[in-house]
């Protein structure tokens, strides 16, 4: 065990605190951290990145109550022969056969 905390902090606010403890205890400046869904919080992940910690955290599922008409990717079906996705309402998404790089939003690269 490298670090523990039995405080009353919610997991969503504990990722950076715990990874900093690991960093301090091992006397290292950079490392990779793996955490479960409970630790997924954007501000915590950003803080870890600023501290030289690369995080791998499972994203939270969007509750059906908070989706506002949006669907989870798991609710879509893919037809390999037709190369199309179908949403839960029966609408289809056709592929443009182009892949885009998200690293450069102004001048996206087509693969």
- The N- to C-terminal Cα distance equals 44 Å
Radius of gyration: 19 Å
- Report the uncertain regions: none
**How many domains make up the coordinates?**
2
Which range does the strand content fall in? Answer: 15-25%
Oligomer: single chain
Secondary structural class: alpha+beta
Strand order of the largest sheet: 3-4-5
**Element pattern in H and E:** HEHEEEE
The shape, in one word, is elongated
Write the topology of this structure.
Elements: H1 15-26, E1 31-35, H2 42-50, E2 53-57, E3 77-79, E4 84-86, E5 92-94
Helix pairs in contact: 1-2
Summarize the structure.
The chain is α+β, with helices and mostly antiparallel strands and 111 residues long. It has 2 domains: 7-59, no CATH class; 69-111, no CATH class.
Explained architecture:
The protein has 111 residues and is an alpha+beta fold. It has 2 domains: 7-59, no CATH class; 69-111, no CATH class. The protein is built from 2 helices and 5 strands, in the order αβαββββ. The strands form 2 sheets. A 3-stranded antiparallel beta sheet has the order 3-4-5, with no helix packed on it. It has a two-stranded parallel ribbon with strand order 1-2. α1 packs parallel to α2. The longest helix is centred in the first third of the chain and has 12 residues, at 15-26. It is elongated, with a radius of gyration of 19 Å. The relative contact order is 0.11. The model has no long low-confidence stretch (mean pLDDT 80).
């Amino acid at each position: 065990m490298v670090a523990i905390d039995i405080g009353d902090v919610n997991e969503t606010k504990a990722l950076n605190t715990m990874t900093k403890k690991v960093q301090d205890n091992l006397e290292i400046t950079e490392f990779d951290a793996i955490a479960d869904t409970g630790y997924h919080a954007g501000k915590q992940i950003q803080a870890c990145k600023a501290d030289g910690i690369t995080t791998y955290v499972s994203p939270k599922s969007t509750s059906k109550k908070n989706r506002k008409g949006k669907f989870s990717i798991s609710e879509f079906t893919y037809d390999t022969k037709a190369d199309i996705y179908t949403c839960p309402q029966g609408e289809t998404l056709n592929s443009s056969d182009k892949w885009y790089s998200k690293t450069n939003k102004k001048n996206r690269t087509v693969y």
